[in-house]
Amino acid sequence: MPRWGSVLARWQACILGSAIAVSLEISGLALAQTSDPADLIRAIRVEGNQRIESATVISYMKLVTGDRFDNIRTNESLKSLFGTGLFADVKLVREGSTLIVHVIENPIVNRLAFEGNRRIKDDVLSGEVQLRPRTVYTRTRVQSDVARLRNVYRRSGRFAATIEPKVVQQAQNRVDLIFEINEGALSGVQRIVFIGNKNFSDSTLREVIESKQTRWWRFFSSSDSYDPDRLSFDRELLRRFYLKEGFADFHVTGAVAELAPDRSNFFVTFTIGEGERYRFGNVNLVNELLEFDVATIENDVGTETGDWYNAEAVEETIEDLTEEIGSQGFAFVDIQPDVVRRHDDLTIDVDYRIREGDRVYVQRIDITGNVRTLDRIIRRNVRLAEGDAFNTARIRRSRTLIQNLGFFSRVDINDQPGDAPDQAVINVDVEEQSTGEVTFGGGFSSTEGPTGSIGVRERNLLGRGQDISLQFVISAVTQDLDFSFTEPYFLNREFAAGFDIFRREREYQNSAFNKRDVGFALRSGYPLAEYLLQTLRYTLANEEIIADSDASATVKEQAGESLISRLNQTLMYDRRNRNVDPTEGYFARMSTSLAGIGGDKNYFSQSAGVGYYYTPWDDLTASSLAEFAYIFPTTGDNIEVGERFFLGGNSFRGFAPSGVGPRDLSVDSAVGGNLMYKGTLELGFPIGLPNELGIKGRVFSIAGSLTEVDNAASTVSDTGSLRVSMGAGLSWASPFGPVRIDITKAVVKESFDDTEILSFGFGSVF
């Protein structure tokens, strides 16, 4: 056995030795083949490069000195060099043991220009393209930029726009790139039709969506130009409208825009499925909050059983309930609607489930997007601070306050998780708009005649929120020059302070005298509560009464100059949805004036006003206003004509300016009064024209009177009787400014009153 083992070992050694010998022979052959000097790259030479260093070119290659000439790696090097975008052409040539790289560099863009563009400015177009001066020119980049520019014009509604790139060769392998643009006409929306609508007409649905049919009166609007993004938004607007009207199964199956062969107009077709209309079934409040009486919020539920289902009303109810519960000290509240749709009787049950939400506190407030405006100007209008309990109602209020500043075109407030589960970061993102104004205005009215104005104003001086302005107004009856400055947060507190320097002159029509005031005023304002504002104003002015030759003796005896020193305070409680043209809410105002803190005049005046606005149906607004004012002397002196109230014209339609109240019959001249009251009822309504025209009708009735004159002459008639007028009119929110026209009849009047049937006015600031 040992002998056989030794023999086997010798055989294994022999076999192993033979294998090693063969392996060494093969390896030697391979080594001999790869080390053949004729197959090795001894040098790499770059030719044709002007700007790019040879070392840079070689760094992009897959072959280096000492490598074997290899077709695969040569192709990879070509791909790598072309992939840089630096070269228009590349060739790799072998000369003996040298690899020659022939390159033709892409040119450098020397200048970028746009020609033929009038509707879209150069800075907008240049922001869209990738090519810039001193960047490498390639055909691929040019084609990409052309596509981008076409998209810009398509978004602006110009689908017929053509863009042709032109290249002008310059020295040193540079080029001027010129985009020749033919903008073409706007591609309008010729027709919008709906398929599947049974409950609402095409005209009604066209009022819902943003896209509009091309019509002659839309020359100041871009809504009649085709925009694919707007079409997508139209689908959402239709969904919201139908959900608001109770069609819970509504869906849009298609929205197709077909371009006319001449590329001038589109034909838009919406295919919709309305489904059935639902009513509210059972509406309940399900309270899961401890120590909370749900009966206190039952009146805040805006959805009632039997009403048509309204998804928007459900959301508004949730917001109202959240705000009301939060005002009662429950900051962490979560209200979710449980909606059950019943197809058998076409009703929808809604349970508002009130439960305690997650306890979340404000960790940090971040302000972004502001360039000029200081952070503190925005932060002081945020109704939350670091460490406060998160409150959605205060978030909404904060957004309203920041938007009302007038400094920003967009205000977004959102929240995101903080560093801990119970913390949130509030992000206030704004987009600034121009706050400086140079205004020129013009207009005409039946009471003022032609009116012109010029003014300079900056509403956000140095980004500090300060307001400074210089205004000059002139008309047939008024000449005003006013310089004003306002600091909204005086001494870094919620206390507005400012001053005015003025010169004002007004002709009192039907009274035969002019009043001229020259002086200054100091004013302040501060909130007493969330919607309650108090303002204080001190005025010191030289007042001059200039009587005409045909003026009343009561007026003539008061002609001349006097010094007036007056302190005024006003309380204003305002819950209107907006200050201009409100449609919902109410306000109450009370003003008090005291003259006699120095000066030549001594009197006390009181005025008050209330207003209520209500929208019972869409586009139908009812309003009621009431005013009262009274003035009386604090010494034995009489109230002079310059301080009395006058009524008529715009203040009492149906009567001429100063056409109501005490009148000197001997010269047919109004002398004013010390007591005034007036009430107005008005109903605004659409007149069947498209809403975007901004033309609305109204009917109104006004009742009131003006009475009481100090030391009146025997020729002055003052009955103090009630006057009533009724009328109708049109208002137009035109591109040139508001336009109004009213036809009013004085149905209850005195024989000596001065009346007028037609009143109108239009004006603009631009």
Put simply, the count of helices is: 11
Q: In CATH terms, what is the architecture of the largest domain? A: Beta Barrel
The 3D shape can be described as elongated
Overall mean pLDDT stands at: 83
- How many domains comprise the coordinates? 6
Output the CATH topology of the largest domain. Answer: Porin
- Give the structural class: alpha+beta
User: Which regions are unreliable across 5 or more consecutive residues at pLDDT < 50?
Assistant: 1-35
Let me know the CATH homologous superfamily of the largest domain: membrane protein fhac: a member of the omp85/tpsb transporter family
What is the top-level CATH class of the largest domain?
Mainly Beta
**Span of the ends, CA to CA:** 119 Å
Find the count of extended strands (DSSP E, 2+ residues): 34
Q: What characteristics describe this protein?
A:
766 residues; alpha+beta; Ubiquitin-like (UB roll); 6 domains; 3-stranded mixed β-sheet; 18% helix
Structure characterization notes:
The chain folds into six domains: 68 residues, Roll (Ubiquitin-like (UB roll)), CATH 3.10.20; 75 residues, Ubiquitin-like (UB roll); 86 residues, membrane protein fhac (Ubiquitin-like (UB roll), Roll), CATH 3.10.20.310; 78 residues, Ubiquitin-like (UB roll) (Roll), CATH 3.10.20; 72 residues, membrane protein fhac (Ubiquitin-like (UB roll), Roll); 330 residues, Porin (Beta Barrel). The protein contains eleven helices and 34 strands. The strands form seven sheets. Strands 16-17-18-19-20-21-22-23-24-25-26-29-30-32-33-34 form a 16-stranded antiparallel barrel. The protein has a three-stranded mixed beta sheet with strand order 1-3-2. The N terminus is likely disordered.
